[in-house]
């Protein structure tokens, strides 16, 4: 399932069955986060991770038993008392405040929904408790950079280069085995960004090795190359190509 639409199916007469759709938000618990640093931007954008660093309730078994014995009762009362116009207005106000932070539209919308629903439940059933504010939840939102696959891929490749620095050195300083392990070369060069020319460390990376190593990290070079070029991470040739003809020690 994806995007709230179930996959289409045909019946025995090859006619199209009605395609079910849904629009839900889920709260789940787990031993580990649903997403990792290698997850796609779409998945990270749609999930808000909150780590429980301490016990949430004094007696978990008692709470679990109470929920099982009273399942569904609070939900029905909540829906009956819910002021739809008021909660929509609260959602829009919260969303507007959250969008002022370094986050994405989807993250802000999801958190605004959680806050609006949670605070409405508090006002109905636990009026003595203080409602959550934008400041309380700001630290749980993913930043735009954390969601952006191209930025995460670039940071991962920079780390990859740092821990494999010797693979970008000239074979003249090592053995034949070192030469065999070379991935490319690193050199300071004058770079023209359009506004001005300046010196930067430029890494020449064997494209095959780059694609293989990025795949190990969970990224695709072809999926991020355009974004890298637009951000200035990847230098293109004069005719706009993403790969340069070059050599290392004559190879």
Distance between the termini: 48 Å
The SSE order reads HHHHHHHHHEEHH
The structure class reads: mainly alpha
Report on the biggest sheet.
2 strands, antiparallel
Return residue spans where pLDDT drops below 50 for at least 5 consecutive residues: none
Give the mean pLDDT.
Answer: 86
Beta-strand content: 5-15%
- Radius of gyration using CA atoms only: 26 Å
- Give the % helix: 40-55%
- What is the count of DSSP helices, taking H or I runs of 4+ residues? 11
Q: What is the general shape?
A: elongated
Number of strands: 2
**Largest beta sheet: what is the strand line-up?**
1-2
Describe the structure.
By secondary structure, this protein is mainly alpha-helical. It is built from eleven helices and two strands. It has helices at residues 41-46, 60-69, 73-81, 84-98, 105-125, 134-137, 144-147, 149-163, 176-180, 207-216, 221-231; strands at residues 184-192, 197-205. A two-stranded antiparallel sheet has the order 1-2. β1 (184-192) and β2 (197-205) form a beta hairpin. The protein starts with 40 loop residues before the first helix and ends in a 20-residue tail after the last helix.
């Amino acid at each position: 399932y994806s995007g709230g639409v179930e996959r289409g199916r045909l019946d025995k007469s090859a006619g199209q069955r009605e395609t079910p759709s849904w629009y839900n938000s889920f709260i789940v618990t787990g031993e580990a986060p649903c997403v990792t640093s290698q997850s796609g931007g779409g998945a990270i954008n749609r999930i808000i991770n909150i780590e429980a660093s301490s016990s949430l309730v004094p007696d978990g078994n008692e709470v679990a038993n109470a929920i099982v014995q009273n399942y569904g009762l609070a939900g029905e009362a909540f829906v009956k008392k819910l002021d739809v116009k008021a909660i929509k207005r609260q959602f829009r106000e919260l969303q507007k405040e959250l969008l002022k932070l370094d986050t994405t539209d989807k993250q802000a919308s999801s958190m605004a929904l959680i806050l609006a629903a949670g605070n409405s439940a508090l006002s109905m059933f636990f009026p003595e408790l203080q409602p959550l504010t934008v400041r309380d939840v700001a630290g749980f939102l993913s930043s735009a950079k954390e969601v952006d696959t191209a930025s995460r891929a670039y940071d991962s490749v920079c780390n990859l280069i740092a821990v494999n620095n010797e693979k970008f050195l000239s074979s003249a300083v090592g053995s034949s085995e070192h030469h065999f392990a070379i991935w490319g070369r690193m050199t300071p060069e004058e770079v023209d960004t359009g506004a001005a020319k300046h010196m930067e460390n430029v890494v020449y990376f064997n494209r095959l090795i780059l694609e293989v190593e990025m795949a190990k990290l969970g990224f695709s070079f072809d999926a991020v190359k355009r974004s890298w070029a637009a951000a200035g991470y990847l230098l293109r040739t004069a005719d706009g190509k993403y790969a340069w003809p070059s050599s290392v020690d004559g190879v």
